Each structure stands twice: as structure tokens, then as C-alpha cells.
């Protein structure tokens, strides 16, 4: 009811402000009371509210305490009229009554391209789209919305650039337009050039039906009767909670209503009984079969009815009212942000002024401090001159003492440098001696490795020789066998000869490896002799220089045994042991 009360107040405001005033802008008490009596009686009549003249007389007494003023009428209007409104009244008749009271005084005398009836509809649309503050105005955003709706209804193209120029010119002078200025704008044909009066009138009526009468869709369709089952053409009007159908589009002869709620549904039907484009509206108590003129109209009606039912289920207002509320909320949000930005700018400006004052105070303090610092600097310079004269003598004495100390330090530094040079030479000789010892140690390890390799080769050689002797004995035994076994033995002999050849090849390979080992031994021996000579040379140098280091010489070596292939890598006792082993193997093979 709060939204209904606000809508009623806008129309009543126009009628209330149209009361006759004298040239000074004031009226007498009798004139005010007479105007309010007429206005109140008309309002009670069109709003279906019982009129109480006693309460009106009581509220506006002709004494000094009676609130006989424009502000005094509003409490009476709210208490005795608006709070009793139930919504069971004709909105168009109510608006027409308020229009009648205010149009004659405010409507422009210049000729317009729209009729008085169209001007009335524009005035009602203005009350719907205007801001909730007085005096009533419509802001540029809502003007653009209305003009776009009218242009779309006329089937013309929207000229955004033309409206942007108009909007800029409007914003430079004021916030919006009054109802009468809006009527002049639409009646001037500025945004409907090329359109005839009838087209503009039909567009205004279409927008009026949608925004004010809540007509979501209307048109002719065929309806199937519930008793006689005949098909009759009716003019259907879809509103947010009802579908009314009339004999014709003049809405004079109403034939019935289809009450819509969240339980209703709409569905398409297949063609039957010679009727096409059928659909069914199901309600709790009754269903309605309807035939549209074509498939496009059928789909549009089904979609429009289903959207209306969905809005009823969700408890949402009609789309145009919800869109208007969203636009208002957006403007309020932008206005709040703008105010907040202005507040912040003021705060920043105040803070900036405070900072400027603080900086001025600091500047004065700095100037005073600079003056004091200059005086102190003058005193400090005088003191400094006196100190320089006094310290110059002491500085001369210090220079003489420093010169003597530098001479002593230079002498000590020279002695220290000689001592450090001798230490470095000793350290270098010690490092070279360490390297020579490491070379000798590595040479001995290489010699031991070669000796072990020679021993392994000799052992493999003795094993091969024993195997060869064994094969030779087996060949002699096979010759003495009988003739019957000769062929078999001959075959085995061939195999063994092949094995013997392989063994001979392996023996030759071992001979090559032994020669390579001997060459490696010679190289290691040379390295060992070189390392020994280097060690002896460094030992002599160190002993001659300091006499502090005693070298450890390697012990004497026993003479090496000589074999058919060169020097052996084992002692006399090891050779005797190997000979015993070979003889034992030979005896076993025989």
C-alpha cells in the first residue's frame, strides 16, 4: 500500500498545486477551505472512500489553532482519505479527475501534434516515471527510457546522438523536466519526425497500457466455449494476475476473466477440429482452449502467459515496475557515491588547508632555528680559530715524533721482509720435496703392479704348457689304438688339433701381453730411478741449506731373476716353489 499511496500523492500534488493563488502567492482561509472541500469530495468519490465533512470542518477550524495552510492539509489527506483506500477504484478515472483540476492552468497554449487525450496519458506516465521528491520532475534517464519505448512502438529507429545533444543541453540548465515540459517535448514532434498524428497516438496508447494499465499483451484470438463448445473471436488483455476477454478492442463489453496464479500453466495443443495454433491455459477450477491467428502469435502468447505465471510464483512485480525500481536504485546508488565523493573531496580540501597552516608554522620555526644556528656558527668559528692556533704547535711536535717512529718502523719492516722471504723459500723447498716423495711412492706402486702381472702371466704360461704336454701324450696313445677306433680317434684328433691351435693363439696373445708388461715395467723402472735421483738431489739441497731434514732412502734390492723372456718378477724361493708345482702336475698327467 505504500507504493500505491506514493502514486496517488503524485497525481494529487498536481491538483493541489493548481489551486488559485493571488498575485502575492497567498490565499485567504475561506478560499483554501473551499478548494480543499472540493478536492476532498472529488477524491473520496473516485477512490471509493466515505466522505466525512464533519472531520474536515473539525480539522480546519476557523480559529487561531486550526492548521489552515498548505502543510495542514496533508495530515488530513493521509489520515481521512489515503489510509482508507483499498485499491478498488478506477485508476484512470482518478487520474482524469486530477488532470481536469490542473490541466487547464498548466497545459501549454501553443498547438501540439498530440491530442488532449494523448497529453493526459503522457501526464499519467510522467507521474509513474518521476522521482519521489517534490516538485516532481522526470530525470534524463527516464526521459530516454520513455522516448525509446515510444520510438519502438512507432516502429522507428532510435536516434541516440540526437538525444545525447538534447541531454547535454538539459543538464547544463536543470536536473529534469516537469510534466508540462515533457508534454511539450513529445507534442513538439522533436523525436517523432516523419510520423503522423495517428501513429504517435497509437504509440502513446501502447506505452500507456503497458506502464499504467499493466497490460502485458493484448490482441484478437478465438476462444472455445465451455457449454456450447463453439469458437468465438474475443479481444484478450493480459495483465500481471488476470486475462480479460472482451467482444471488441473498445473494452466496453467484457465477457469474462481468467484468474492467474502460481498454480496455472500453459501448454501447446496439436491442431484439431479444423483449428490451428491451439494452446491450453490450465487453472485450478477450469481450463481454456484458445486459437491464435498464426504460429508466431501463438508462441508469443504462450511465452507471455508463462512469464506472468513465473512472476506470480516468485512474487515479483511486473517487468516494467521492477525495471523502474532498479533504475531508481541505480540512480540512488550513483547519487550516494557522488555525495560520498564530494564529502571526501571536502575532507581532503580541509586536510590540505590544515597541512598548509602546519607547513607555514614549520617554515617560521625553521627560520627562527636558522637564525639561532647562524649565531651559534659565528661563535663556533671564533672558537675554532683559537683552537687552530693552539693546536698548530702541538701538531708540529707530533710531526717530529711521527717522523722518528716512521724511520724505526721502516728499519723493522726491512728486517721482517728478509725473514719472511727466507721462510717462503723454505716452504717452497718443502713442497717440492713432498712432491718428489709422492712420485717415488707412486713409482713403487706401479712396479709392484707390474710384478704381479708378470707372475700371473708366467702361471698361465705354465698351465698352458702342461695342457699341451697332456694333449701330446694323448695323441701318442691314440696312434697305438686299434684300426676300428682309428677313425673315431682321428676325428677327436682333428678337434683337439683345432683346440691346440686355439691354445697356441692364446699363448701367442699371452706372449704379446707379457712383452707389453715388460715394456711397462721398464717405464716404471725409469720413473723410479728418476724419482730416486730427484729425491737424492732435494735431500742434498735441504741438508746443505739447513741441515734439518733427513731423507729416508729406499733399501737395497735383490738381483732379479732372468728368464727366457726377460727379467722375472719373483724371488729364487718363489721360482723353486713354482718348479715343484709344475713337476707335480706333469707326473699326474702321465
Automatic annotation (TrEMBL):
| CDD domains, sorted | PH_SWAP-70
> Quaternary structure?
The SWAP complex consists of NPM1, NCL, PARP1 and SWAP70.
User: What's the protein here called?
Assistant: Switch-associated protein 70
Q: Does the keyword Membrane apply?
A: yes
Q: Which InterPro entries match?
A: EF-hand-dom_pair, EF-hand_SWAP70_N, EF_hand_dom, PH-like_dom_sf, PH_domain, PH_SWAP70
Determine the domain of life of the protein's source.
Eukaryota
UniProt source species: Psophia crepitans
Q: Which gene encodes it?
A: Swap70
For this protein, the record's Pfam families field holds:
EF-hand_SWAP70_N, PH
Amino acid at each position: 500500500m505504500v507504493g500505491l499511496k506514493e502514486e496517488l500523492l503524485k497525481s494529487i500534488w498536481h491538483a493541489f498545486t493548481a489551486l488559485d493563488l493571488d498575485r502575492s502567492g497567498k490565499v485567504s482561509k475561506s478560499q483554501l477551505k473551499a478548494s480543499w472541500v472540493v478536492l476532498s469530495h472529488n477524491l473520496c468519490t473516485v477512490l471509493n472512500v466515505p466522505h466525512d465533512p464533519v472531520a474536515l470542518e473539525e480539522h480546519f477550524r476557523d480559529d487561531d489553532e486550526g492548521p489552515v495552510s498548505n502543510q495542514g492539509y496533508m495530515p488530513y489527506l493521509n489520515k481521512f482519505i489515503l489510509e482508507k483506500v483499498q485499491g478498488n477504484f478506477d485508476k484512470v478515472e482518478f487520474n482524469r479527475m486530477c488532470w481536469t483540476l490542473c490541466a487547464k492552468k498548466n497545459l501549454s497554449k501553443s498547438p501540439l501534434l498530440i491530442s488532449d487525450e494523448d497529453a493526459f496519458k503522457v501526464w499519467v506516465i510522467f507521474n509513474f516515471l518521476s522521482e519521489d521528491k517534490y516538485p516532481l520532475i522526470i530525470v534524463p534517464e527516464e526521459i530516454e527510457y520513455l522516448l525509446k519505448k515510444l520510438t519502438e512502438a512507432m516502429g522507428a529507429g532510435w536516434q541516440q546522438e540526437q538525444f545525447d545533444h538534447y541531454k547535454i543541453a538539459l543538464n547544463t540548465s536543470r536536473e529534469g523536466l516537469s510534466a508540462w515540459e515533457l508534454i511539450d517535448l513529445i507534442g513538439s514532434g522533436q523525436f517523432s519526425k516523419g510520423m503522423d498524428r495517428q501513429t504517435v497516438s497509437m504509440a502513446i496508447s501502447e506505452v500507456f497500457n503497458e506502464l499504467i494499465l499493466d497490460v502485458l499483451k493484448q490482441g484478437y484470438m478465438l476462444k472455445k466455449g465451455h457449454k456450447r463448445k463453439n469458437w468465438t473471436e474475443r479481444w484478450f488483455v493480459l495483465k500481471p494476475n488476470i486475462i480479460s476477454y472482451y467482444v471488441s478492442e473498445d473494452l466496453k463489453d467484457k465477457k469474462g476473466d481468467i484468474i492467474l496464479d502460481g498454480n496455472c500453466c500453459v501448454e501447446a495443443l496439436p491442431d484439431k477440429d479444423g483449428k490451428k495454433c491451439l494452446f491450453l491455459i490450465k487453472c485450478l477450477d477450469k481450463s481454456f482452449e484458445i486459437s491464435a491467428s498464426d504460429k508466431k502469435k501463438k508462441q508469443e502468447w504462450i511465452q507471455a502467459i508463462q512469464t506472468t505465471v513465473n512472476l506470480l510464483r516468485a512474487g515479483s512485480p511486473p517487468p516494467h515496475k521492477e525495471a523502474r525500481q532498479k533504475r531508481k536504485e541505480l540512480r540512488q546508488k550513483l547519487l550516494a557515491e557522488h555525495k560520498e565523493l564530494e564529502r571526501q573531496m571536502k575532507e581532503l580540501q580541509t586536510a590540505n588547508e590544515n597541512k598548509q597552516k602546519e607547513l607555514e608554522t614549520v617554515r617560521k620555526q625553521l627560520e627562527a632555528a636558522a637564525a639561532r644556528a647562524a649565531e651559534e656558527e659565528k661563535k663556533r668559528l671564533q672558537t675554532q680559530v683559537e683552537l687552530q692556533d693552539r693546536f698548530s704547535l702541538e701538531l708540529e711536535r707530533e710531526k717530529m715524533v711521527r717522523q722518528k717512529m716512521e724511520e724505526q718502523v721502516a728499519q723493522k719492516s726491512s728486517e721482517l721482509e728478509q725473514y719472511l722471504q727466507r721462510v717462503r723459500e723454505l716452504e717452497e723447498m718443502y713442497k717440492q720435496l713432498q712432491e718428489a716423495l709422492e712420485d717415488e711412492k707412486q713409482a713403487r706402486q706401479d712396479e709392484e703392479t707390474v710384478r704381479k702381472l708378470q707372475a700371473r702371466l708366467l702361471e698361465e704360461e705354465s698351465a698352458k704348457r702342461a695342457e699341451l704336454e697332456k694333449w701330446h701324450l694323448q695323441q701318442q696313445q691314440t696312434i697305438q689304438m686299434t684300426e676300428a677306433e682309428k677313425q673315431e680317434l682321428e676325428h677327436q684328433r682333428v678337434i683337439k688339433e683345432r683346440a691346440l691351435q686355439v691354445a697356441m693363439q692364446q699363448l701367442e696373445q699371452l706372449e704379446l701381453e707379457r712383452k707389453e708388461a715388460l715394456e711397462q715395467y721398464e717405464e716404471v723402472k725409469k720413473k723410479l730411478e728418476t724419482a730416486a735421483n730427484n729425491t737424492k738431489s732435494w735431500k742434498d739441497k735441504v741438508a746443505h741449506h739447513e741441515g734439518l731434514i733427513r731423507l729416508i732412502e729406499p733399501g737395497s734390492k735383490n738381483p732379479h731373476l732372468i728368464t727366457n723372456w726377460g727379467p722375472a718378477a719373483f724371488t729364487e724361493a718363489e721360482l723353486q716353489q713354482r718348479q715343484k708345482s709344475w713337476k707335480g702336475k706333469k707326473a699326474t698327467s702321465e
